[in-house]
Design goal:
The chain has eight helices and eight strands; from the N terminus they run βαβαβαβαβαβαβαβα. It has an eight-stranded parallel sheet with strand order 7-6-5-4-3-2-1-8.
Amino acid sequence: AQTSSPVRLLAVSKTRTADEVDTLHQLGVDEFGENYLQEALEKIAALNAQHEQSIIWHFIGPIQSNKTRQIAEQFDWVQSVDREKIVTRLNEQRPDNLPPLNVCIQININDEQSKSGIAPEQLTELARQVSACPRLQLRGLMTIPAATQSDAELNASLNTMHNLFRNLQTQYPSVDTLSMGMSSDIEAAIQSGSTMVRVGTALFGPRTS
Ligand SMILES: *Cc1c(COP(=O)(O)O)cnc(C)c1O
């Protein structure tokens, strides 16, 4: 029988200080997610100076095309990829001395105006583009479901994501990550096949800024 793979914890550290990240890292958390580039670069520099090179940094916020160079140079993963222009720039700008940048494609599963991400119908083409880039490694999908759904609607959204993920896995052997689940829907996301939860509030407490 196949054992299911463990679910990875990504600590979402937006608005938290480098010291708070360091404390959680000492407790054994290795992967951190950041939304705002300038804030993230300051923390990465501070923690690199403290020789915390063992932290794996994920960029999870909306990507402006004039910010791709710093993302390509400073991060290990980017989970919010949602258009070809960004794919092309990240591939060109990923330094040769680093391993390929790990990429998740963001899906706007509830078609919300306010959110980044592509429609499921666009996935085949964008995945093909990422997989053709030698400096990028396609790892999977990321989503932020609508907060206002009923439990039944949420579960339907999560199951749709799981089906997209399984389908993508059959085409690309490098795909192993379904990044879904935040503080409010961790359990439902894991039940629907999430392999990585992104948790801020439930780890650090409420954000004040
Ligand atoms: C802020 C954020 C999270 C974490 O949200 P919490 O509700 O604090 O757990 C996860 N993913 C993304 C993309 C975020 O922006």
